[in-house]
Amino acid sequence: MKTILARKGSQAKDSDAFYFQEQPIPEPGPKDLLVRLAAIGMNPVDTKVRVRTQEDRVLGWDGCGIVEKIGTGVTDFKKGDKVYYAGELNRPGTNSEYHLVDYRITAHAPKALSPEDAAAMPLTSITAWEGLFDRLGFTAEKDANRGKNILIIGGAGGVGSVAIQLARWAGLTVYATASRPDTVDWCKNLGADTVLNHRNNLAEELKAAGADKVDAIYCATQMEQHWKAMAECIRPQGRIVLIDDPAGPVDITVFKLKSIAIFWEFMYTRSMFATEDIGEQGKLLATEASLLDNSTLVTTRQKTLHGLTPENIQAMHIHQESGTMMGKQVLVI
Known about the structure:
Elements: E1 2-6, E2 18-22, E3 32-41, H1 44-52, E4 57-58, E5 63-70, E6 82-85, E7 98-102, E8 106-108, H2 115-119, H3 122-135, E9 149-153, H4 158-169, E10 173-177, H5 181-190, E11 194-196, H6 202-208, E12 214-219, H7 227-233, E13 234-242, E14 261-264, H8 269-272, H9 280-293, E15 301-306, H10 310-320, E16 328-332
Parallel strand pairs: 9-10, 9-12, 10-11, 12-13, 13-14, 15-16
Antiparallel strand pairs: 1-2, 1-4, 3-5, 3-7, 3-16, 5-6, 6-8
């Protein structure tokens, strides 16, 4: 099968950062699905792993395709099923024609979506769902959180784009941040009640929008830049969830007087540590598939490339690191 490998420690623009390698089609082990991929998605984790990896490896985790074989112990799936998933960080990625994935973190793909629209969704959907409902503690039901509000920093990115939609579905009043006219419109179209400019003072922007404080903050990007602003914007005894890596130490004491609860969201925790509730990821992807099928959620695919080539993978990495991302990039294999 065709695979594209990333060279360890490479920069996205390096001429030899990505290269083609023919590999044998893998055989599924216990609990595995062998999937023939139709489309794959791109996420910030791809670029981070490329820079940090100590060996050349196949990157990519979002995928949508057809089950070709199943391993022992697999239930609920059979050959020919169309599935989507975000994979596991400690296994080879989806920049390949075939891929192995644990069935417990997999779901039947949305019936109403094309493979490329479905491939845009898994990783960001899991991250948004777990952050909102597992970490921040909101109720994962339609309109169940009326009267509560949330600030989503980085509303136009991959995770923010799904978090806006899920928060709106769950009944929250949504304040999201964006700074360009196109990203502001994107956030509004996804359901944000108010869009704040994160290049300005967020606390002042929030007050101007008629809210003194928010119940929770989902910080999907640049936590250090917004650290003090979050301390101002959050209500006493509120909750904050973080997903990106700080470049250095941060002063957590700015949240002490308000007794703020700080959570990390890392969607690979369940698969990396084989937690007892690993199957929750498959279940939440199934729920989100239903929400996509009934148009409660919409795909966040914004850019589509065709063909599994080193050049296309490189182009996706360069764009991912450009700081201008809106929604998701997808490659049709």
